[in-house]
Amino acid sequence: MPENGNYMIAAYILVGVILVGYALSLYLRTRRSLRA
Amino acid sequence: MRMLRVGRWITAIGLVLLAGVYVRALSFTPIEQSQGLAQKIFYLHVPAAIWAEMAMILVGLSSIFYLFTKDPRLDRFAASSAEVGTIFCAIVLTTGPIWGKPIWGTWWTWDARLTFTLFLFLLYVGYLLLRSAVPDPAMRARYAAVLGICGMCEVPFIHLSVYMFPTLHPMPIVLQPGRPKLPGSMLTTWLLSLGVFTLLYVGFVVQRYALSYLREQLEAVSEGGAGGGYA
Q: Of the residues B137, B149, B188, B204, which has the fewest C-beta atoms closer than 10 A?
């Protein structure tokens, strides 16, 4: 079996960062609009 | 705002369930023998691709209805779906090369499926840039609707590109005529992941829609009018 677990780990971390980052961005943008 | 709270809750549940998908995919789903662990990228790459394409189809459909009805809610939905679609498309275009490198031996190739997907991403970026470049809400909505419809027309080419052109990208193994060519445990993990990505799409779009509505209300208050200038 090929040894390529590091690619899988990189992809899983990347997807988590993108999705959590976008959720955070939405939260901060709406908070800013609500305060305005 | 009730809609904002609902969107936040759906997103939070989606992110918690995403952690569950990670655990199931990494610990309770068998490793594919020929591709090894890299094959597990499939559980994130394919659901993200489905929603990147679905989001553009929904942008196109709401744009068509917007052009007929001039209902600002449809334009707001199209803008929200496009932004979320861009995020999912970014996931597809980053996880794809990470999967491709160990399996194909290259990060990128100008294969039909890959090129069409890159084109979809560029259409999304163009759509968002167009929206930010046109100040008049009615004109912005109309121009964006035309581009959204063009984007929707591109989606079938992405799906059919593997049949129409000789490509390095594999044929569909789930979304194809007949039974999915996937063992039961892998299919279950994939379906769970698709469910979570669906939940995240809904949560993100609801939040983004509420944010657009909020901004329009603020603009209307600052200009001393109402209705967001769609007339």
A: B188
A35 touches chain B (CB under 8 A): no
b or e along B46-70 (b: 16 or more beta carbons within 10 Å of the residue's beta carbon)?
Answer: bbbbbbbbbbbbbbbbbbbbbbeee
- Is residue B177, in this structure, part of any structural domain at all? no
Q: Give the structural domain span for B45.
A: 2-29+37-171+186-221
- Shortest alpha-carbon distance between residue B68 and chain A (Å): 30
CATH number at residue B160: 1.20.120
User: Which residue in this structure is represented by tokens 């944010």?
Assistant: B211
Chosen from A15, A17, A28 to mutate, greatest number of chain B CBs within 10 A:
A15
Higher local confidence (pLDDT), A36 or B109:
B109
Q: What pLDDT does B151 receive?
A: 97
Which H helix or E strand runs over A33?
helix A5-35
Nearest to B44 among A15, A22, A34 (CB): A15
Helix segments in chain B, DSSP class H? 2-27, 42-69, 72-104, 112-133, 137-164, 184-223
pTM of the model: 0.93
Q: Domain total for chain B? A: 1
How large is the ipTM?
A: 0.96
Query: Domain for residue B110, yes or no?
Result: yes
Residue B231 domain-assigned? no
Question: For residues B109 and B93, is the Cβ–Cβ distance under 8 A?
Answer: no
Digit-coded pLDDT (tens) for A6-30:
999 999 999 999 999 999 999 999 9
DSSP 8-state code for residue B33: T
How far is A15 from chain B, CA to nearest CA, in Å? Answer: 6
Is B176 part of a structural domain of the chain?
A: no
